[in-house]
Amino acid sequence: MPDLVSHVVFAYAISRYFTFSRRVLFYTGAILPDIITRPIYILIPQLYPYTIAVHTPVFMIFFTLFFAELFEKKIRQEARIFLFAGVLSHFLLDALQKHIHAGGYFWFFPFSWNAGSLGLFWPHEPLKLIPLWVFLILAVEVGIFFYNRRRKQVNISSR
What we know:
Elements: H1 4-15, H2 20-43, H3 48-54, H4 57-68, H5 76-95, H6 130-157
Helix pairs in contact: 1-2, 2-3, 2-5, 4-5
């Protein structure tokens, strides 16, 4: 699976213009499948086969519905939508990677044991791009800051 930084950077690219609360929900959803499964199979490797079922869309649908119930009633629907949208962005990246074993992820578990993946890159390859992504994000944010600052100055001087 792509690393957590890759998932967050991808989520950033998608959610750049969301409100802050929606971005937090989206980022949380983008890393949620790995946050739930990785500690289990790192600390207790014998349980890895069970984590396969947790890292599936069906499980994550139920988990995000449950998790959203922990929010205040007035934002539950928004929490459901943006958490699951983040989870979908996570699965989109996961679907693009190669796997050592032939299959990939069990996208339709428990309805099917067929696994699949597009196999475009190895999971460790995005790690090489982290410095570039950090630089690009900083450049975009600084550019937006100065653009907005200049626009405000032009608006003030045109009055």
